[in-house]
Design brief:
- By secondary structure, the protein is mainly α.
- The protein contains 22 helices and no strands.
- Helix 4 packs antiparallel against helix 16 and helix 18 packs antiparallel against helix 22.
Amino acid sequence: MTLSQIVTLAVLLSVVGALIWDKVRSDVVALTGAAVLLVTGVVRPVEVQGAFASPAIIALASLFVIAYALELSGLLDRAIDAAVRMCRRLGGAGVWLLLALIGLLSCFLNSTPIVVLGAPVVRDVANALKLPPKRYLMPLSYITVLTGCCTLIGTSTNLLVDDMARVAGQPRFGLFEITPVGLPIALAGGLYLFLFSSRLMGRSLTGPAIVQHAPDFEAPGAQVGDAELFAERRPFQSAKALLAGAVFVGAIAAAAMNIAPIAASAFAGAVLLILMRVITADEAYGGLRPQILILIAGMVVIGIAMEESGLAAVATNTLVGSLHGVSPLVALVVLYGLTMVLTELLSNATVAVLVTPIAVALAESLGVSPRPFLVAVMMAGSAAFATPFGYQTNVIVYQMGGYRYMDFVRVGLPLNLLTFAVAIVAIRFSFPF
């Protein structure tokens, strides 16, 4: 291993260890890791700058502004009232029904804005029913990820793998071509969460919320609108609610139809809301959650270091290179497992870019269709459940619910294994070699 790879590996292990230790703010941990990588020369200043201006940061910041505009218009209060009425009739089962309805939207819309808008609603509904929000916020993130695997446009991972496969000479996927694989995964994962997630959280579920080491983090939900501000009743302003809702739907639709990337459409939507005076510039700044944006940016820097140092490529090529001559099914299992592990460490976009060409090359070396291998990358590239940082929606609920790092390990690791098994069986039957 080169010196840069050793430094990157040491930083990665230290950051994960500090997050598990849970004594220092997670955004500070991520920034510290990024600073070490910058000082040691593993990453350059321009790459750090690029991480803080990445499409993911722009998209998420813009979506926070749009979500805050919907909040200020009183529309979310109306949604909460309707959800509370339904859940009071049905009890805790009603909250799970609400999660299922939100998950249904994630089949066709990006999961990040859905969780940005849905998490405060789920939290407030649970509080109104005197139920712990922790019981539902982590499943909310997981369910939106699971249902996003059901269609080609449900997650950016699927679209990116499809595009990378096209560059490699493969035909494009149809909108519902992966549904026979994604749907069983979503149903199995949803049933698991309904039956076991609360039990696996154990004492953490009834324990006090984690108090972060700064005033901004003292209340759960500081990441998606200030919890105290959100608790304040907003008068319903129909015109502003209509405009904010239309901008949100328009931004998502533009991204879904490939008119513009989600970062561009969401950014344009946020600016449009300011120009239309649905939200003032000062209110827009107040809607930004810098802690979560910095946290993601810091983790992106670590991902860049793994890519630039060649650490990710060395690990991937070493494992996949040993598969020549094995059966296609064994190669599929190993590729899925490798992609799933990398997704916990890197962004889903980085994993899709790194692994998709390898999947095509591996299939061609075995003399079989690349289709099942590409679907495996799609599913495993989103199946990031065992850490709070494998997927953006996990990060959103991580601080909001006051979870510990190990809560995600206890609930997410079995979910990883379950979806792994279901995916392999479904791919084997739906996509012949």
